């Protein structure tokens, strides 16, 4: 009836994410009873889940996992270690065996095989107009260990997000964040190839952080959730300062995902939900806004910033801009040299000389020389031996 007090509206709070997120559930009508005699069950309330907070069945993230595994199998097929290398790991796998540990300690293919199937190579993006590599690189992995680490993280993080927000928003968040990670990587790391889903994964982490901020009022234990999430993000970014880890892809993906989270993962306020799903005949004295003012401001600012970043980043990449020329210290964000490791990322190269069945190689990077017994060595075999010699 009109004029009812807002407190008369019954909204059940139902936790769906380990007690941290609270979800309103709509009050439905009591189902008809077979008997007309009054019983206590007539006061029963039936709850139905509100569509704005519905629980989605995840299928896209598992599909992404399958796609990444399929691409790794295809990469190993293209790699064909027995044909293109002198020695292989797990030779019983035949064509799918791995490159030697000295060449690839992650149990995976050679760099040339990754280039063939779409690894991010800035020179090819700029000089040969192969911009598609900015997307394909996020579906490739450098080895079994690399693949397992990323897919485990994707399952743990991605499935929960897809359950909460659906496949459309999480799919866009994942792909666009991965693209943003590729852009920042291409602007700083131009001497080596880059592969992996890490940029997209960091985008999901960034989205989780901005979702917590923009939907702050609907969280329980919000400070604990914020501290936990910040620690997880900080630890993962700190790992990126190790050698052979593309932390620029991590940073680019995180920044993109953080901004996109304010756009894609915004939720309506409970006051609006109460009025939206009020019983028939209820009339609110004061209309509640669907979103708070700060949510609208964050949405607009983030949308502008992410569009500017992606467009400007793409233009700079296609023009061959190297941001290391404008930031002399930025390379430390991806690798910090210590007494235990070097951050030298220069591509390896060797001088080769074939005499009969003897192949002599000299590494141009460290001047090491070695002779191999190998007749009519192919370019792929020479490249693989050179990689091992220069490590």
Describe the structure.
- There is one protein chain.
- Helix content is 47%, strand content 8%.
- The chain is built from 13 helices and six strands.
- The chain is mainly alpha-helical.
- The protein has helices at 60-79, 81-84, 111-117, 122-127, 133-136, 144-165, 167-188, 198-214, 222-239, 247-264, 270-276, 293-318, 379-390, and strands spanning 12-15, 22-28, 46-49, 350-355, 358-363, 369-373.
- It folds into three domains: 6-53, no CATH class; 60-333, Rhomboid-like fold, CATH 1.20.1540; 350-390, no CATH class.
- It is elongated.
- Helix 1 runs antiparallel to helix 6 and helix 7 (167-188) packs antiparallel against helix 10.
- The longest helix has 26 residues, at 293-318.
- Belongs to the peptidase S54 family.
Outline of this structure?
This protein has 13 helices and six strands. The protein has helices at 60-79, 81-84, 111-117, 122-127, 133-136, 144-165, 167-188, 198-214, 222-239, 247-264, 270-276, 293-318, 379-390, and strands at 12-15, 22-28, 46-49, 350-355, 358-363, 369-373.
């Amino acid at each position: 009836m009109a004029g009812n007090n807002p407190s008369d509206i019954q909204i059940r709070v139902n936790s769906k994410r380990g007690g941290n997120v609270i979800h309103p559930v709509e009050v439905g009508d009591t189902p008809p009873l077979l008997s007309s005699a009054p019983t206590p069950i007539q006061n029963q309330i039936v709850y139905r889940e509100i569509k704005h907070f519905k629980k989605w069945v995840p299928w896209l993230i598992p599909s992404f996992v399958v796609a990444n595994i399929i691409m790794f199998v295809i990469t190993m097929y293209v790699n064909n270690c027995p044909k293109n290398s002198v020695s292989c790991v797990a030779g019983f796998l035949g064509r799918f065996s791995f490159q030697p540990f000295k060449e690839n300690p992650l149990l995976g293919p050679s760099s040339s095989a990754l280039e063939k199937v779409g690894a991010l190579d800035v020179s090819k993006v700029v000089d040969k107009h192969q911009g598609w590599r900015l997307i394909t690189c996020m579906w490739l992995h450098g080895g079994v260990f690399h693949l397992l680490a990323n897919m485990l993280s994707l399952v743990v993080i991605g499935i929960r997000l897809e359950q909460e927000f659906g496949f459309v928003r999480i799919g866009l968040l994942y792909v666009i964040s991965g693209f943003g990670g590729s852009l920042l990587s291409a602007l700083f790391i131009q001497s080596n190839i880059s592969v992996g889903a890490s940029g997209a994964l960091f985008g999901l982490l960034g989205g989780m952080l901005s979702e917590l901020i923009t939907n702050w009022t609907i969280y329980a234990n919000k400070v604990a959730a914020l501290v936990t999430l910040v620690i997880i993000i900080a630890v993962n970014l700190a790992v990126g300062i190790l050698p052979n880890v593309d932390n620029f892809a991590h940073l680019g993906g995180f920044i993109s995902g953080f901004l996109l989270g304010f756009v894609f993962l915004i939720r309506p306020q409970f006051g609006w939900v109460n009025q939206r799903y009020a019983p028939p005949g209820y009339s609110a004295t004061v209309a509640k806004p669907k979103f708070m003012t700060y949510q609208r401001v964050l949405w607009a600012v983030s949308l502008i910033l992410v569009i500017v970043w992606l467009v400007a980043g793409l233009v700079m990449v296609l023009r061959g801009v190297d941001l290391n020329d404008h930031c002399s210290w930025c390379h430390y964000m991806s690798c910090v040299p210590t007494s235990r490791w070097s951050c030298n990322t220069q591509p390896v190269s060797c001088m080769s000389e074939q005499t009969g069945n003897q192949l002599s190689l000299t590494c141009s990077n460290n001047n090491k020389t070695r002779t191999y017994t190998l007749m009519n060595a192919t370019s792929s075999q020479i490249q693989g031996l050179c990689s091992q010699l220069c490590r």
